[in-house]
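Propose amino acids for all 119 sites.
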């Protein structure tokens, strides 16, 4: 298994070092290993988990729901149904936002077309 410095983790995940520290502090990121000197060392598993967090965050999942999801994941297989339910609800919310954006995009395109006929 590979290990990554904080700078490498930042580069590979797109998260800032401050976000990584924050996620660790609030429990979204499990206990990150440390060197004997106390510096964080990220694993492939850590980066994989950060990839999941990135997806959920980028799709608008609030921190409170992220924390709930992380707590459930750490609790093990007994929480699979609850995790699935949480993700399905989030998926429905994302779909609703996408539909709203689609309608707004169409309206924007109509406005652009109108302005083009005026020039």
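Proposal:
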């Amino acid at each position: 298994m590979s290990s990554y410095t904080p700078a490498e983790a930042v580069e590979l995940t797109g998260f800032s070092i401050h976000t990584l520290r924050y996620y660790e502090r609030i429990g979204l990121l499990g206990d990150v290993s440390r060197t004997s000197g106390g510096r964080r060392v990220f694993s492939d598993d850590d980066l994989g988990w950060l990839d999941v967090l990135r997806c959920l965050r980028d799709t608008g999942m609030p921190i409170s729901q992220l924390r709930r999801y992380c707590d459930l994941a750490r609790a093990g297989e007994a929480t699979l149904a609850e995790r699935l339910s949480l993700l399905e609800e989030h998926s429905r919310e994302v779909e609703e936002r996408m539909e709203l954006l689609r309608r707004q995009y169409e309206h924007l395109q109509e406005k652009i077309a109108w302005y083009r006929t005026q020039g």
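The CA atoms of residues 4 and 42 lie 5 Å apart. The mean pLDDT is 96.
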